[in-house]
Write a structure and sequence with these properties.
Length: 423
């Protein structure tokens, strides 16, 4: 397979069709229609860049939610999608950490309250499938963005263009390929970008819960020896006034056993683990299972390719970091490419792609390290680690300025990333 001839800047995506064949050329070719791919596609097309994005939108409920922090909400607002999503999401006012490891040096519970740093809330919790469905609807309506269902499997990186093909006669090309195809990214692999992946002995069980007591916009993360057990507020619905989502990290065998339980039995386990914090619980809808791993790509860019979101980094679901980090990639990449387009540069030129990599690498390295350390520290029952973790929680609970600094960093990390995410 060879990469086709250059596409003029600003042209509409060009298509050619024949029996069993569909070819689309644009300025930017993209793979992966998850939250990250869709948001980059919308941002680029809104900036006047033609985009062809290949991926099947999966908007089926899977019991999973994402807590979108302030920078992510601002980015989605700039894309024009937040207004529709806001009513489906619940504000998070307080984030509480509870050390439930049973350690000798157990730290006190820590409550991070957004009002302490002059905010109404840290962000909003939304069901993942509603976020993806909302982004897909917006993507279909943006001129200059062609969203095609399917998969891309073969990639050819030429000197001026990159081309990619699916198994069903679909072929696309662009001056640059944006890989947002998740942690098993085929595009990343084809570009020869390696990853460092460390699996944890954990899976996350996810579910939607209806409960008796109000959540009062408080998210509670219990740190247990098998992983985090987190209850995150959701808005009430026609069926239930009080709803929350659950992310429960545990050993894979325990996840398999619990996922197979009848919903009422699983609900009793959840009530026990949550110490009846939310009163009686009902598990509603599908229960999801997600293997937990830490993954980091060796590079964010290569010849005519940029990787973003879980294609570039994945981490344990602690402290609502994963998608928030990924949406900062999305904001940074779309801004770098839009700037390059305004300056008449080749969007796939190494100098352009390096600007994206430089903007993002510090934030990604810091978050990956921090989440990995915390997850290991919870699982590790050796005394020095317990002591350090307990001391950290004690300091957070008793030293106001430290707690407020941690809150600001959680919301709006590092100057570079901050600027990219909030501009
Ligand atoms: C249990 C759990 C809870 C989480 N909670 C939070 C939270 O509260 N806050 C937070 O910020 N983050 C959270 N995360 C992380 C967050 O969900 C992920 O970071 C986010 O979903 C990654 O989005 P993505 O678009 O990069 O990848 P994905 O959602 O994996 O999307 C990739 C897309 O690419 C498609 N694809 C793959 N290969 C191809 C191909 N060859 N051709 C075409 N398409 C392809 C896939 O089908 C998929 O649609 C959580 C994660 C888990 C597992």
């Amino acid at each position: 397979m060879t990469a086709a001839s250059p596409e003029p800047a600003g042209a509409a995506p060009r298509g050619a069709e024949g029996p069993g064949v569909r070819t689309v050329a644009a300025e930017v070719a993209m793979v992966g229609a998850g939250a990250v791919g869709l948001s980059i596609g919308i941002a680029l097309a809104t900036a006047g860049i033609t985009v062809v994005l290949v991926g099947t939108v999966d908007a089926r409920p899977n019991g999973r939610t994402v807590a979108l922090l302030e920078g992510s909400v601002q980015f989605l607002a700039r894309l024009g999608v937040w207004r529709q999503l806001r009513d489906l999401a619940e504000p998070l006012q307080v984030m509480r950490l509870v050390d439930d490891t049973g350690s000798l040096f157990r730290g006190p519970p820590v409550a991070f309250d957004a009002r302490e740093i002059g905010r109404d809330c840290f962000g909003y919790n939304i069901q993942n499938h509603l976020l993806v469905a909302g982004l897909a609807e917006a993507a279909r309506a943006v001129p200059g963005l062609t969203l095609l269902p399917g998969r891309l499997e073969r990639f050819a990186f030429g000197p001026d263009r990159v081309a990619a093909e699916g198994p069903d006669g679909l072929s696309v090309s662009g001056t640059v390929l944006v890989a947002a195809d998740g942690r098993r990214s085929a595009a990343r692999r084809a570009a020869g970008i390696g990853v460092r992946e460390v699996p944890y002995p954990q899976e996350a069980l996810t579910a939607t819960l209806h409960h008796d007591r109000p959540h009062r916009n408080v998210s509670t993360e219990f740190h247990t020896r098998q992983g985090p057990f987190t209850l995150v507020p959701l808005p009430g619905s026609a069926e239930a006034e009080h709803r929350s989502s659950l992310v429960w990290g545990m050993a894979p065998e325990a996840a398999e056993r619990r996922a197979a339980l009848p919903p009422e039995r699983l609900a009793r386990d959840i009530e026990r683990q949550s110490r009846m914090l939310l009163g009686r619980i009902r598990v509603v809808g599908p229960v999801g299972r997600f293997p937990i791993a830490s993954l980091k790509a060796d590079r964010l860019v290569g010849p005519r390719i940029a990787v973003a979101g879980e294609a570039a980094h994945a981490m344990a679901p602690i402290g609502a970091q994963g998608l928030n980090l990924s949406l900062r990639d999305a904001a940074a990449l779309s801004e770098v490419l839009a700037d390059a387009r305004r300056g008449g540069e080749d969007l796939g030129a190494p100098a352009v792609l390096d600007r994206y990599a430089r903007t993002r690498q510090g934030d990604i390295a810091a978050r990956s390290f921090g989440v990995d350390w915390l997850n290991r520290a919870i699982l590790d029952d050796r005394l020095p680690t317990d002591l350090l973790r307990g001391a950290g929680l004690l300091a957070m609970s008793s030293i106001g300025p430290l707690r407020r600094l941690a809150m600001r960093q959680g919301l709006m990390p590092g100057a570079d990333a901050d600027a990219a995410a909030t501009r």
